[in-house]
Amino acid sequence: MQHLSAQQVARLVDVPPGARPYYRALADAVRALVLDGRIPVRVRMPAERHLAGTLRVSRTTVTAAYDLLRERGYLESRQGSGSWTALPDPAVSADNPWLAVDDGGLIQMQAAAPPAPSALGEAMAAAVEDMPRYGMGNGYHALGLPELRERIAAHYTGRGLATRPEQIVVTTGSQHAIQLVLGVLTGPGDPVVVESPTYPHAIDAVRLRGARIVPVGVTHEGWQPDLVAAAMRQHAARLAYLMPDFQNPTGALMDDATRALLAGAARRCGTTLLVDETWSELALDDVPRTAPMAAFDTDGRVVSIGSASKLWWGGLRIGWIRTTAALARRMALHRAAADIASPVLEQLVVARLFDRLEETRAERRRALRASRDALVTALRARLPDWEFAVPRGGGTLWIRLGSGSAVSLAEAAAGHGVRLAPGPWFGLEGALEGYLRLPYTLPPQLLEEAVTRIAAAHRHGPVGPTRVPDSLSPMV
């Protein structure tokens, strides 16, 4: 293992002699060096007494700095083996500079995006090692890398839905998948049924296509299948976009009976169901096992989409579509006008991550459950008049405010250092003004701090200049 001498560390750290407390300033300096790569991970640090002597401070001071680094996850130690640099687990660490704030210094409560799991580093290393043999080809796989399509198909088959690789199209994220399906199956003016509230960028995609949006209500208690069926029938809907697995933002989980009813209604109405399964792997509590919506399909009318973004990491930008083999080929041809094919390296990474799916699911479950419970506890303590149901999975709470406007609250919260996603972002024509979506994909400590600031904004209004939330900001 590479090691640094006390003299080398002393040259790298830049701690003003008058810094107080000195141990914290020393720990912050080492942390910054690790984060920017000037001190690599898994480098052995000098013994405490040697560094103390070189810096001309007490050994107690260096011991306190090392203790703080260990507490934050930037140092690991073993008796008899010394201490070496590390990076903290981003899922449980509030000391994550990428999660804590956005570029404007606000806690990011507008996005339900978890950090990467611990398996990502090894999967990336394995993918890079595999790249040379793929480099012998031209790199264009319009349907997706065969290796990844095989794993996705096997995963569907394992869930009880027999699937062949030729039924899979790998996309550049789930948003690309939505746009690709809309581009092939709908045209300007076509009616498209959309849940309300729903994923905002799905609304954006339907509008971009020029289709006509037909909203149908959903709550944390679920869907009313007769209303969904009536919307499809009365509007002769070309397509219906549904999110049956821990719906974003309500967290609702559709039972098998409702899935079967809606698949049957779509068949009778001639409507294609575009089923977004992005959150399907993130059950946090024991819930009844549900079948994929496509398991109730008898005529190729259910098109399913999935994504690596929630189970693994949004930065991979890999999603997929499951449909009939014939429609998959049509989509592969249609995508040529947009992106031709998805990046090979990211597809290889996701293929490796599928091999560790159970491990990652368990890791996500532990982290998200802890964050969900911390958020729920903090809200009940500080904002007891807010109403919400605790979802059994997914990553968000859908909250009904006791009073006031969610947009006004979001404006005030920006002045208190928190960026929020008000209810109207998730609906149409200014609806859902009394609702707010709060994600629990950040660490518990950061969520508790965010609730403290939100409560202050709720009580007192803006502090200093407010920043109006921009609906074009990254929001997932």
Short description:
The chain has helices spanning 6-12, 22-35, 48-55, 59-72, 97-100, 120-134, 146-158, 174-185, 200-209, 225-234, 256-269, 309-313, 325-334, 344-354, 357-382, 406-415, 444-460, and strands at 75-78, 82-85, 107-108, 168-171, 191-196, 212-217, 239-242, 272-276, 302-307, 319-322, 396-400, 418-419, 421-422, 435-439.
Task: Characterize the structure shown.
Helix 6 crosses helix 14 (about 345-355). The chain folds into 3 domains: about 5-85, Arc Repressor Mutant, subunit A (Orthogonal Bundle); about 100-115 and about 360-460, Aspartate Aminotransferase, domain 1; about 120-355, Aspartate Aminotransferase, domain 2. With about 475 residues, it is an alpha/beta fold. It is built from 17 helices and 14 strands. Strands 4-10-9-8-7-5-6 form a 7-stranded mixed sheet, sandwiched between helices.
Shape, principal axes of CA atoms? globular
CATH evolutionary superfamily of the largest domain: Type I PLP-dependent aspartate aminotransferase-like (Major domain)
Mean pLDDT: 91
Radius of gyration: 25 Å
Give me the side-by-side strand order of the main sheet. 4-10-9-8-7-5-6
Return the CATH architecture of the largest domain: 3-Layer(aba) Sandwich
Oligomer category: single chain
- Please identify the top-level CATH class of the largest domain: Alpha Beta
Question: Helical proportion?
Answer: 40-55%
What structural category arises from helix and sheet content?
alpha/beta
User: Between the first and last Cα atoms, what is the distance in angstroms?
Assistant: 40 Å
Q: Helix count, per DSSP?
A: 17
Low-confidence stretches: 464-473
CATH topology of the largest domain: Aspartate Aminotransferase, domain 2
Q: How many domain regions?
A: 3
The largest sheet, given as strand count, sense and whether it forms a barrel, is: 7 strands, mixed
Q: Strand portion, in percent?
A: 5-15%
Number of strands: 14
